[in-house]
Amino acid sequence: MLTKKTYNNRINVYSQNKIEPELIKIIINFLFYSKEDSEHNFELIKADKVGTEVWKLNYKNQFYFLKKYFPVKFVKKIKNIFRPTEAVRHFITTILLNRSGIDSFEPVAALTYRKSLWSFDSIFVMKESKGLLLKDFIKSDLGNLKNDEIIAKKFALLWKNLLKNNFWHQDPSPVNFIVNTKTSKPEVNLIDVDNIYKVPYN
């Protein structure tokens, strides 16, 4: 499903399609090695206390979102020794969702960095999805009765497809969905798959 390539003795790059080496190098230098980068515009979108950051990068007029995982809890660090890192797991989940006809974002790469024997950081690289967060859409002027009805039906269909394909979404917050209003009718897509799990039963 994913191709694994060795970047150096500590970093591996996972991808599904051909990716531009320079893009990967820029991301690694800034987010893994903390090298200053005045040429490229890295924007911190969100950070939390449990070990995740979301960055936005404009590279050759294409926007990318970079989700960095650096587990701080010892239990998570131990688990990641015996399983794929967060970025790799979420990359695979995204592929399975898209193959099931459940629209999300376009995944690009997963990068893993062995900091020590017990510690791995990882980065999930994805292309920007156009649209408004469902939370912001509801509050905007676009949230009229007609569009609200369409969105409600689209959301119900999305949820039905998740259950039909044995996916369990444990965090259906409006901030985890995006509304694309550039299509003939508004579409609802997933933009965060961290809490979506494939269950082995119908």
Q: Any descriptors?
A:
Phosphorylase Kinase, domain 1; 2 domains; Transferase(Phosphotransferase), domain 1; 202 residues; single chain; seven-stranded antiparallel sheet
- Helix content range of the residues, please? 25-40%
Number of helices: 5
Q: CATH first level of the largest domain: which class?
A: Alpha Beta
Radius of gyration: 18 Å
Straight-line N-to-C gap: 23 Å
Tally of DSSP β-strands: 12
Morphology: globular
How are the strands of the largest sheet arranged? Answer: 1-2-6-7-5-4-3
How many distinct folded domains?
A: 2
For this structure, the CATH topology of the largest domain is Phosphorylase Kinase, domain 1
* CATH architecture grouping of the largest domain: 2-Layer Sandwich
- Overall structural class, as computed from helix and strand content, comes to alpha+beta
- Full CATH superfamily name of the largest domain: Phosphorylase Kinase, domain 1
Low-confidence stretches: none
Quaternary structure annotation: single chain
Mean pLDDT: 91
Biggest sheet architecture = 7 strands, antiparallel
**What proportion strand?**
25-35%
Order of helices and strands: EEHEEEHHEEEHHEEEE
Short note summarizing the structure:
It contains 5 helices and 12 strands. It has 202 residues and is of the alpha+beta class.
Characterise this structure:
By secondary structure, the chain is an alpha+beta fold. It folds into 2 domains: 3-127, 2-Layer Sandwich (Phosphorylase Kinase, domain 1); 132-198, Transferase(Phosphotransferase), domain 1, CATH 1.10.510.10. It has 5 helices and 12 strands. Strand 4 and strand 5 (62-69) form a beta hairpin. The longest helix has 20 residues, at 145-164. It is globular and about 55 Å long. The relative contact order is 0.14. The model has no long low-confidence stretch (mean pLDDT 91). It comes from Halanaerobium salsuginis. Residues 120-192 form the ABC1 atypical kinase-like domain.
